# Entry
Amino acid sequence: MPIPNGFLSRKDLTIKEERYPLEVYVCEDCWLVQLTHVIPAEIMFKNYLYIPSTSQTMLEHFKAFAVGLVDEYGLKPNDLIVDIGSNDGTLLGYFREQEMRVLGVDPASNIAQVARLKGIDTIDDFFTEELAKKIDKEYGKAKVVTATNAVAHINDLHGLCQGVRLLLDKDGMFVMEYPYLADLLDKNEFDTIYHEHLSYFAIRPLITLFKQHGMQIFDIKRTPVHGGSILVYVSKKGSRHTPKDTVREFVQLELLKKLNKKEAYDEFARRVAGIKRDLMEYLKSLKSQRKRIVGYGAAAKGNVLLNYCGVTSELLSYIVDSIPYKQGRYTPGTHIPIYPEARLAKDRPDYTLLLAWNFADEILKKQVKYRENGGQFIITIPYLRVE
Ligand code: JHZ
# Structure
């Protein structure tokens, strides 16, 4: 597979593209699901094209999270909030509105600069124990360390835990959000498995991990973003936070779903192969009827789906996307051109394959006219359907 966020310019199309193995394994000891091949982080994240803040859904989600956290835990003005993988500073912006001191950490220099222009203090580097020491020295201890869709991107999970532990205030908390493994399996979200995501977390392996570093999970909440995510609240042992019932409930759920049995993963693999077969048969049958098909949302996960299934520009003429950086570029591996969303209303293709299925509600609402004019969306996840 090519790097799923490795969008190409026109001149890149003539150069041979790098491809990397994409294999996912589950450990039959601690049941952590991980990739076996790790691409150096500098290749993937130093110049990054993903920004969540172009989605209204994500803006509302981050705002509700920041306001809710301050309210629930009585955070005070001037408390320090550090966000790992802070991107363009959107989440921290909502904490700053509530008068917190904020600091972002993100290796993507291009996006860290966008955050700084918005006045969000940002260090453009990878979060490590070394960096945590520097932050502690310069800014002091953090009341909260957040990491939304960032922990799965970090290879050295032990280094992450040590850094977070060092940085946290005695009663501080580490709150991480990521797509939940149980949802990934239940809803066949195979296309979220790609090089950027090194781990796919259930709660049980994380309990083991944090225990090794004198920390514990004290609460878990479900959130609807990215196909079903969870917020996991972690504190140092001996802090004022004591584990809530939710932790025990998630552990029970995972045992019930047999996430500690190989069969759960084998069945998932079988269902994924079925999605590929059904989608390709369907797209080819539409093409043989001379239907015009395009794609919606040049998401990284979309690139996994296209490459895995073998959807090329012969089947999908182009993809529309709201992110200006992606427009005018081509998808990695499949070389499908990307245009602004407005192209859909102008061209009115018969079918649009929704690659950003996690934003189905927002996108279908936005494209109500296209659908009224007869356009139809093909959605693949959790199962193939037309809306
Ligand atoms: P989206 C990213 O994956 C990458 P991706 C990352 N590795 C991660 O962990 C996950 O997110 C969580 C477009 N769009 O956010 C914008 C429209 O065109 O699902 C995006 O290109 N119109 C950090 O890349 C794409 O769809 C719209 O109205 O799979 C969505 O990509 C909306 C809402 C989105 O992430």
Q: What stands out?
A: The domain at 282-386 is CATH 3.40.50.720 (Rossmann fold). The CA atoms of residues 166 and 316 lie 49 Å apart. The pocket of JHZ is lined by residues 50, 52, 54-55, 149, 196, 226, 297-301, 321-323, 326, 341, 356, 358-359, 362-363, 366 (CB under 6 Å). The chain has a mean pLDDT of 96.
